[in-house]
Every structure is written in structure tokens, then in C-alpha cells.
Amino acid sequence: MSDARTRVRRLPERQVTDRATLNDLLDATVYCHVGVALDDGVHVLPMAHARDGDTLLVHGSTGSRLMRALAEGAGACVTVTEVTGIVVARSAFDSSMHYRSAVIYGTFHPIVEQGSAELGQGSPGAVAALDRLTETLIPGRSAEIRPPTARELAATMILAMPLTEWALKVGAKHPDDPAEERGQQVWAGWVPLTSRAGTPVPADEESAGLPVPASVQALVERVNARP
Fold first, then answer.
1. b/e per residue, 56-78, with b = 16+ CB within 10 A?
2. What is the Cα gyration radius of the chain?
3. Which of 67, 174, 194, 203 lies at 20 to 30 Å from 121 by C-alpha?
């Protein structure tokens, strides 16, 4: 990693350099924000993501100007954040959050079908990359649905970024009030924040007459099992 961009300067004691912690954050979240500078300014878009080993995957429309710029090698900055609590201190200044936040720098390259001359030996194909994205969002879903059509593949761009330059910051402390304020009659603590999955809602009458598939049931159970 390049220290120039990835060294945390504000509260450096919160920087975590352990790669396993970064992997855990990427695997526990389902979307990121991708920033890129284009001719008319800087643009940031939310995108679903998946980690495939040492690579971050995103996808979008082949008609997207941002996706085309990324595929052509424009420098990108990707942020991933998980907030799990609001820290309530005895002052607004010392209030904070419980969080894990990563900033990833680099360039994306397009993933195309296996055997394409654009890829090196052993590179994953577009179908495998889309399956990885699907399985990250809804594990087990790929086996329940049809494979993508040639038209759908032609309309979809899958991009991959190596996880080589990144900074990770974790805040998980109690309120850090100065000693002189702790004798005041002011409550301090934190409020946990959690995400919960609701009851699956069928899209139409046909779906309403079918049982909820195993992948969707497992998704609800997995989300609701998180602390």
C-alpha cells in the first residue's frame, strides 16, 4: 500500500492495517460508493459490490458513462462504510459513531467472457463474476434461476479492482468525555444500530402463489441473526 494516500492522519490510532478486517467489512456489506473524476466534475455513485478473493467486483450498464470511464482506466476511489451505533457523549464535540470505514484506491478493468483475447490466462468470465455478485447479495439464488441471456450479458459491464491500496478506520469506543465533565449530571452512552430483514413481499399474483425460495428465506435468517 502507498502510505501517502492510505495513512490515517485524523485519529491515527483507529487505523487498522489487518487485511482480514478489510475482507470482513467488504463481506458484511452489500454496497459501496464509487467516485471518479470526469470532464464535467467528480461523480460518486452507489453500487452493489462483491469481494472475489483479492478483487472487488462491481457491475452496471454498458451504456453508463461512469462505467465506461472506469473500464478505460480512470482512477477511482471506492468507499465502504458500516455504522453500528451512535456514541452519545456529554458534549456534541465528543459524540461519535461506532463504525468501520474503508477507502480503496485504484483502477478497474472489465471482466469479459473466458477465452477472450482481452483477458489473461485464468481470468474469470462474465458469468462467473455475475454469479459471484448474485451469491454475495442472495446466497443460493443462482441455482434457483435461469442463467443470463446473451443480450443481458451484452448490456452488463462487470468491473474488477485489485485490493492493493486501501485505508481502514474503525471506531468502537465508549464516549471519550474529558475527566472534568464526568461529574456532571448528563447521560452518556451509545445507541446500537442494526439492520433487520422484513417479511418477503411477492412481486405479483404468480409469486404470491409460490413458496418463498430457500435462498430468500436464508437471506432473511442471515440478516436477522446479526447482532
1. bbbbbeeeeebbebbbeeeebbb
2. 21
3. 67
Q: Are 105 and 77 in contact (CB under 8 A)?
A: yes
Name the nearest CA neighbour of 17 among 3, 27, 34.
3
Residue 150 class from Cβ within 10 Å (0-12 exposed, 13-18 middle, 19+ buried)? exposed
* DSSP-based three-state secondary structure for 215: helix
- Terminus-to-terminus CA distance in the chain, angstroms? 32
Q: Can you give the length of the chain in residues?
A: 227
**What's the mean pLDDT when you consider all of the chain?**
89
CATH topology of domain 3-177: Pnp Oxidase; Chain A (2.30.110)
Over residues 32-39, mean pLDDT? 95
Q: Where in the chain is the domain with CATH 2.30.110.10?
A: 3-177
pTM of the model: 0.87
